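WARN  no MSA supplied for this record, continuing single-sequence
INFO  ligand: 6-O-phosphoryl inosine monophosphate
INFO  echoing inputs
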Amino acid sequence: MSNIVIVGAQWGDEGKGKIVDIFTEYADLIVRFQGGNNAGHTIVVDGEKTVLHLIPSGILHQNKKCIIGNGVVVDPEVLIDEIDALKKRGRFEDDRLLISEDAHLIMPYHKKIDATKENLKGIRKIGTTGRGIGPAYEDKTARAGIRVADLIDESVFRDKLKFILMEKNHLLVNLLHQSGFEVHDIYDKYMGFAERLRGYVTNTSIYINNEIKKGKNVLFEGAQGTLLDVDHGTYPYVTSSNTVAGSACSGTGVGPTHINGVIGISKAYTTRVGEGPFPTEQNGLMGDWFREKGHEYGATTGRPRRCGWLDAVVLRHAARVNGLTGMVITKLDILSTLGKIKICTGYTFEGKTYYEFPSNKRIMLGAEPVYEEMDGWMEDLSDIRDFDSLPSNTKKYINRIAELSGVETIMVSVGMERDQTILLKNPFE
Ligand code: GDP
Ligand code: IMO
Ligand code: MG
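INFO  complex generated
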């Protein structure tokens, strides 16, 4: 029996969707534990692309249960659209999805507040996905949220909505100078959602723990990345949830004693969407080269991703705050044809060298990377399926990443397809 957590080791979009889909083969339950439809997880199987925002990336395998845990914020409209789109393609069966009754709902006012506050911030904006994530988590912490359990009880939902809308309309109309919402509009719409989703709703903590008792394997699927964690990321340029491995427990109601391993996913270089510090970012030709060759455009918002060299300070930070037991390196194929490849090993700022990610915003934003340079490779990696057949400089690069991060490489990925993967050590075995 193995229960494994998968998290992003950088700023998101590391290829978690692809890797979760691959490890689903060895798992029985695939569980999302935080974030919402700010996530965009891409899976490509036999040329067919699937982008998932809320449904766990195990859905393309038959007979696996996909679970939305209590730590996720759920936009019911997006979830229903995702279910319908998968059903149309014959990729969804009703008995394979469970939704936690304790998960919080994203409401229409959350999206409006997200967008309005971003606009007001001007140059200090976070660059959110505009999906209402921050305001929904704010309400959860402020004890003003509406949960899935409330949605499926008509009288509780109406009562809570009426009460909460008074405050939200005051905020929207009087402080943010926007139009407000009518109770009956939201009520009618959400009662429709309730009917569609009721059948999937349960106490998922009880369900998962019972399955663990039976010896089933659980794969916990993180969204976003470590540097977007609200505590351990580049605050305030982060998302509003804990994205680190510890969140897999609080976000599902499974105790830490049941977790057997934590796998970090890292690209062979670095990308980030939205604002905030990114010491190894490459503006100009090098950044454009990564973006075009790696198709670095957001899976959720379509925004161009900021691109740069691999940052080992970031990976060491991720190794520590997640307790990583293994690392997967994706998109190695993209680096082919580079004569030299740089890895950042530390930063300098005002004459001082830093080997750990700084918390001070001024240092984060002003940090100058210290690079070491390695020889690149010209060969195309996309058809290689075993480690030994990789060019020797590719192997050196992979080994150097393991040395610098202090985490063993358990898999490398050389293309977007499910089978463009080299498995070195299976965490489920
Ligand atoms: P996630 O949010 O971590 O699941 O990552 P995204 O799906 O947002 O972005 C990763 C992108 O890289 C997707 O378009 C994947 O299809 C693609 N991808 C994943 N692994 C590889 C790889 O090894 N090589 C290439 N070329 N593309 C990859
Ligand atoms: P996946 O799971 C990359 C970024 C946004 C913004 C910040 C806050 O696909 O890796 P939010 O809407 O969460 O309040 O935005 O976080 N962000 C992501 N960046 N991948 C993601 O998810 C992201 N989810 C949020 O761009 O900078
Ligand atoms: Mg993504």
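The CA atoms of residues 37 and 54 lie 5 Å apart.
INFO  checksum written, moving to next record
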